[in-house]
Amino acid sequence: MERKKRIILIGRSAAGKTTLCQRINNEELKYHKTQTVQVINQSMIDTPGEYLERRYFRGALMVTATDADIIVLVQDATENGSMFPPAYSSMFAKPAVGVVTKQDLATEQQVAHAKQYLKAAGAGELFVVSSVTGEGVEALVRHLDFL
């Protein structure tokens, strides 16, 4: 039996990683703080934002990413700035996709800046989504082709 492709979601705390996982799985959207790495449906690895925010946890992201096929960099459109350093995705040696979240709360200019941050971090294909409205999520899922 062939294993599904597995993605790892990396981004700041409250960037929308867990909510995006819930939307993809057609679950009720409810906020809870991700405290540890969680594997969802054997196809998604949801990581705590602190793993990106704290330098001493970044090694844990690299180790956890070995179980993933695709890196998903998640950027909150309403956030000013980004935690992703330039060419960040290159350390994983795997395809990287960028996802701009909270599109329903952001201005066009904020979305454009979020896309720039993700491109600078090394994301290839970019998707703009709202986990609340569902906008853009289907296109992302089709691209990832893991369901």
What key phrases describe this protein's structure?
147 residues; alpha/beta; Rossmann fold
Structure description:
- This protein has 147 residues and is of the alpha/beta class.
- The chain has a single domain (7-144), classed as Rossmann fold (3-Layer(aba) Sandwich).
- 28% of the residues lie in helices and 18% in strands.
- It contains five helices and six strands.
- It has helices at 17-24, 50-53, 58-65, 108-120, 137-144; strands at residues 7-11, 38-40, 44-46, 70-76, 96-101, 126-128.
- It has a six-stranded mixed β-sheet with strand order 2-3-1-4-5-6, sandwiched between helices.
- It is globular.
- The two termini are 15 Å apart.
- The mean pLDDT is 91.
Helix content: 25-40%
Q: Ranges with pLDDT <50 over ≥5 residues? A: none
CATH-defined superfamily: P-loop containing nucleotide triphosphate hydrolases
**Overall outline:** globular
Structural class: alpha/beta
Number of strands: 6
